[in-house]
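To assess whether the prediction recovers the assembly geometry, we first specified each molecular entity separately, as shown.
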Amino acid sequence: MRPGSMILVLEQLLNGLQYGVMLFLLAAGLTLIFGIMGVINLAHGSLFMVGAYAGTLVAGATGNFWLGIPVALVAAGATGLAVEALVIRRLYARDHLDQVLATFGLILIFNQIITLTVGRQPVFVAIPESLAAPVELLPGLFYPPYRLLIIAAGLLVALGLYLLINRTRIGMLVRAGATNRDMVRALGVDIRLLYTVVFGLGALLAGFAGYVSGPISAVQVGMGEQILLSTFVVVVVGGVGSIKGACVAGILLGVVDTMLRAFLPGLLRGVMPASEADALGIGIASMGIYLLMALVLLIRPKGLFAAGG
Amino acid sequence: MPSPDARNLARRIGLAVLVVALLAVPMFADSSSLSLVTRILIYSIAAASLNFVLGYGGMISLGHAAFFGIGGYVVGMLFVHHADATPLMGFIPGSNQLLVTVPAAVVVSGLLALIIGALSLRTGGVQFIMITLAFAQMIFFFFVSLKAYGGEDGIIVRRTNEFLGLNMRDRVTLYYVMLGFWAVFMLALWRVVHSSFGTVLRGMKQNERRMAALGYAPYRYKLYAFVLSGMGAGLSGALMANFLRFASPDMLHWTKSAALMTMVILGGVGSFLGPIWGTAAYLVLETWLAAQTEYWQLWLGLILLAVVLGTRGGINAGMARLAALMMRGRG
Amino acid sequence: MTGAVLEVKCLVKRFGGLIATDHVSLEVRPGEVHALIGPNGAGKSTLINQLCGELVPDEGAVFLGGQDVTAASVPDRVALGLGRTFQITNLLTEMSVRDNIAMAVQARMGRNFRIWDAVARRRALWAETDGLLAGTALDTRAHVPVAGLSHGEKKQLELLVALARKPQLLLLDEPMAGLGAAESHEMIVSLRQVAQATPMLLVEHDMEAVFALATRISVLVYGRIIASGSVEEIRANPEVREAYLGAEDELC
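The predicted structure of the complete assembly is given in tokenized form:
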């Protein structure tokens, strides 16, 4: 392999890692909500969008990128708590069908509210200049520090969640809840409070992911659903209820998806005409994570790290 | 819980009103409402198919757009190859005959349902919902990237398929053709629901553990139901592509799956006529709201929330309750 | 070949550090009612679930009619003649008594992938269903939905449904649980009749029923069988008295 292509591979690996970290941030909350509350929440992507819009608009108005982060957290967290209190809480005892329909309704509502208040045009935020200019990681490998920062932040969150779940009382309840919901109830824990905390945490992670991914992919209506569908694949592959699964599967799928998109058309060009190779390559690449999911389902139907064995 | 008598009465009234009204529609309807009713008929085939796995079988599939869309694409692709006079994949001749394209669409969507079902039925619950959704999304991406068949733009079917020498460009003729397909489908579904298999399927929804203890292997029965349901959705898609003269990735989009599910729930899960009423309610509501405001989806979302949080059992259960009230009033 | 209908060899099941089934071996011979008794938490349900195929054991083997079914699924074991009742009644609650029994008969008759017949017109099915119902306490309740039955009636229906499958062996998981004195007596009479044709493994707390029905008793404590023998032998066994029967007063 030529050094130039080696650098290209490394660069795409980092891109994949960064995308994977994003997927993890969303999947972590989602998998806990599924695992502990048994609720399917299609509107998780809407929290991602709310965080992105709130942060981006404030950052744009004030010219301060960093101010966007707490704003995104507060907006997504508050929205999450409101959604939990007004809608989700009434769905715990219902079947999945009602949950799907109600949270689908929420998606429509959030998308329309954003369209009404902000408009259909995508909004943008500029990255601080210090983070935008690529730095040389290795000889010849230039990479934007902003993306590195996202990777670092995502890994920090993973570490934080790991500590939270393995070292604290809330974490103990979360773990117990993911394996055996009834047991936690039997322990006399205020299950409602636990649910609210978990949902709120999921909302914070989603809002954060939404804002920091804004400068990389466009902040627009529908951004939530797009990433939500990939997040579902992450949750299924990782195993419902497993943070570790969400982390491994998120990064795995992020890297696979990015690598396929970057290199598959090129590889296919070796064996077929360029235009066909591009079309086929992009086609297969966009199906890649789903095919991977099919493979995992064949081998481990409950996911790689299914909670409760 | 409405009594069986009340339910029977509601069903009979519903059926009688439905048959008479459907035959008479072209006499009263202008072209836009005729088109609306035709769409209701076609979509209700997909909704009833979804209800077969959802309401009778207890499988919450959020990926039925895949089967609906593939049905449409089979019609579209066969038309393209008929128009170009080139064989599909080198050996399958194209066709513009409804009696060829529709069975082909049903078979292809059944095969797709076999593959997707075989994989997704390996798990249940929340995973099943996400997996069916994900696979449908995969099919969506596949067709978006399939530039040979229009990619994002889809396939325009310049002329509706030919059928028994009828003038398919006439909207009234087309309506009666679609009504014919609809009636045949509904009668067939009625038979399946009340067959040996249909009975086992209903048992499966109520208590899978018990059914296994009786010796029924749940996986095989559920997979069979899933395939049958996929075939029905494929039929619906094939008819839709003929009616709209268009097949596009839009038919495969996940919001289409959610819309189909909404139709089923609006009408009442697990009742035979429910999906028909639900489809009508959904499409009429959508058409009316869209005429009122650009932001009709906001209202649709609010209505969905209200329906789920405020009521249980949908329109059909509401009608049965109404019938029960009438019975009480008489007795 | 021992000729046993059911043979369990050295079965082991662990949950984390806990050993729920500890090298259990037992058998049920033709004509036998083998009762399995033991205090709460002895691992009776865990054992039953392994025998009927809902739970996979970690070690050991299960044979049905001489055939190794250790890895077989629930429906496969049912096809080999295993029938069971559930401790907490497990019926098709939206369907009637008659439909519940018909579902079992239908399972035995097969041809259930037919989508073009009408179940209401399967004459043999309904004739046999009504034959099974005739003369039972539930005959007059045939069209009542299960949700409308009393607890005692549900327990009776559990048994009828299991019998409708014509099993070679019955696993009964606490058929007396929650029954009043009169209902218990009825159930004992029913079971004694069934026992004439069908060997059983009877898991039960009600010692009166066990002594009335069993031809052999095994005692399960902490996942281990501590004694096995005839009714008299078990009554006389000091270890059993200490471990289980002595505590009976406190249990009840």
